[in-house]
Every structure is written in C-alpha cells, then in structure tokens.
Design brief:
single chain, 207 residues, alpha/beta, Ribosomal Protein L4, Chain: A, 6-stranded mixed sheet, 7 helices, 34% helix
Length: 207
C-alpha cells in the first residue's frame, strides 16, 4: 500500500498514513474520466430552450384567404412555419440531457481521478481542518502555508466555519467526503483531504 505524509495546519509532519492502492494509486483510465465529466456536465444542463410550434402560436384559426381564385397556393393558416410570424418547425423543446452510467463505472472514474492527483504529487493530507470562527483570511493563510494556488478541500463532516471561510476565495472549493466527485477533482489543481475524509472515501469505494 502507498503511504502519504499527514500534516497539521501549521505544516508540521504529524505522521504517515497508508492509503488503498485500489482507490488512490490505481491505473488512470482517461476514457472513464471523460465519460464521467460528460455525465456530470450533461446532468447540470437546464435543457429549458423552447420555441413555439404552429399549434402554440397565437391566432391562425381563420383561413387567410379563399381556397380558389386568387392565383396563390392554397393556405389553411398563417401560423404555418413558412409564414413570417408562424410557428417553428422542429425547434428545440424542454428536455433532459442526462444519461445513464453504471455504478461501477462511476466508482472506477472517481478512483482514477483521485489517482491522478496522488500520482502527480498534488494531494495533501491534513490531520484535521478547524477554525475558531468564520475567517476568509485564516483559511487563505492555510492555503498559502502549503503553497496551494487553488485546491479542492475535502472534509469529513459538516463544518460551517471552514465551509463559509473558503467560499470567497478564488479557485478554492470545500466539499464533504460524501460529495467528492470527478469533475471537481479535475477542475482544481490540488486536492486537500483530512485524515478522516480519506477513511470515508476508501470505505465507500472499496465495497
């Protein structure tokens, strides 16, 4: 099993921890990462684009002119698509862009994303992250202490002080362990995890 150094908030080494190779040091499969990012982005799309078809356009109930004798082609309604102001033919309608991925594919993609950060030495493990109060300045100092220019910070449980302290920092995001995902791991250049968060992630992915 691979090992990582565990630091405290002052960047002092407080120990080492073994991490599961199947989760943090597995073979990186790019196609799984691609599929998972597409899956997440597609699920976030609103899909609310819509146009009016010929039945939704106001008016058009009356025949515009008589059937014969005008020299024009016969017409039944001005809401037809070929009239100015008529309905749109085959235009977009509200829809969902989401598609299905198997659970094992999602888990394998998450393991690949975690492995990308570990193998690139862009993963930092802290014993814990705690702040006495909500303070963007204190959280920013923590990031600067570890020389992290942008990071996804994964904590093991809800912590209002930590979560609210990081929300105004550019290129920093705090997630709880149960919400860790491929898109956010790849979006941010560094990954910071608490010791307890690693245990939760391993417990979920080693099943």
């Amino acid at each position: 099993m691979a090992t990582v150094t565990v630091f405290d908030q002052d960047k002092n080494q407080v120990g080492e921890r073994e991490i599961a190779d199947a989760v943090f040091n597995t073979e990186v499969k790019g196609y799984l990462l691609h599929d998972m990012v597409r899956y997440q982005r597609a699920a976030r799309r609103q899909g609310s684009a819509a146009v009016k078809n010929r039945s939704a356009v106001a008016g058009g109930g009356k025949k515009p002119y008589r059937q014969k004798g005008t020299g024009n082609a016969r017409q039944g309604t001005v809401s037809a698509p070929h009239f100015v102001g008529g309905g749109v033919a085959f235009g977009p309608q509200p829809r969902s862009y989401a598609f299905k991925l198997n659970r094992k594919v999602k888990q394998a993609a998450l393991c690949s994303a975690l492995s990308v950060r570990f193998q690139a030495e862009k993963m930092t493990v802290l014993k814990e992250i705690s702040l006495e109060s909500i303070s963007t300045k204190c959280f920013n100092q923590l990031m600067q202490r570890f020389e992290l220019d942008g990071a996804l910070v994964v904590i093991d449980q809800a912590d209002v002080n930590v979560e609210l302290s990081a929300r105004n920092l550019r290129n920093v995001k705090v997630l709880r362990a149960e919400g860790v995902n491929v898109y956010d791991i790849l979006k941010y250049p560094n990954l910071v995890l608490t010791d307890a968060a690693i245990g939760q992630i391993e417990g979920a992915l080693e099943k």
